[in-house]
Specification:
heterodimer; A: mainly beta; B: mainly beta; 6-stranded mixed sheet; 12 strands; globular
Amino acid sequence: DTAVSQTPKYLVTQMGNDKSIKCEQNLGHDTMYWYKQDSKKFLKIMFSYNNKELIINETVPNRFSPKSPDKAHLNLHINSLELGDSAVYFCASSQGWGIGNTIYFGEGSWLTVV
Amino acid sequence: AQTVTQSQPEMSVQEAETVTLSCTYDTSENNYYLFWYKQPPSRQMILVIRQEAYKQQNATENRFSVNFQKAAKSFSLKISDSQLGDTAMYFCAYGADGLTFGKGTHLIIQP
């Protein structure tokens, strides 16, 4: 069983389209995250939810909207896709929020905008 | 804001050798955690080892160990008896509110 699973794993789409990436964790964790890894492999946090509430919202265009229907799910919707959105998006989770919580990552969703 | 610096973009060693990856960080906090993650070509992010800042004893996990120097804000990863499967990107990360990552070191183990 995959602890943190994301779908789709690969996504190729045209500029201007709207797409979603889904994430589910079966670890019973309270906190979930979205990270973006750019073409230079730099990883940066985008959003974090704790018990379905948004607690981190880094400087991300408002075309990106996370949604957490319950503690086990955190989906990422992207409107009006741009070439610069091409990246690997990682969903992750941890037991709780704050110091001492180890973060476990999904396998990543490779988004290519053409 | 916290920053994490990995000064070695790429390293290459022979199989069975020992290799050390460097990491320094900057923070004004006293209590935090540090992590090393491995990212093989599959892109999966795999936790290698973690260190609690208030513990002086260096963490070890089988062939992986760290040298944690809190005063110097240094957190290096040592891989002993390196194996071909160790070939990957290695990311150092500072953990408080979420993770702040370094830019990574691409480690290549040569046969």
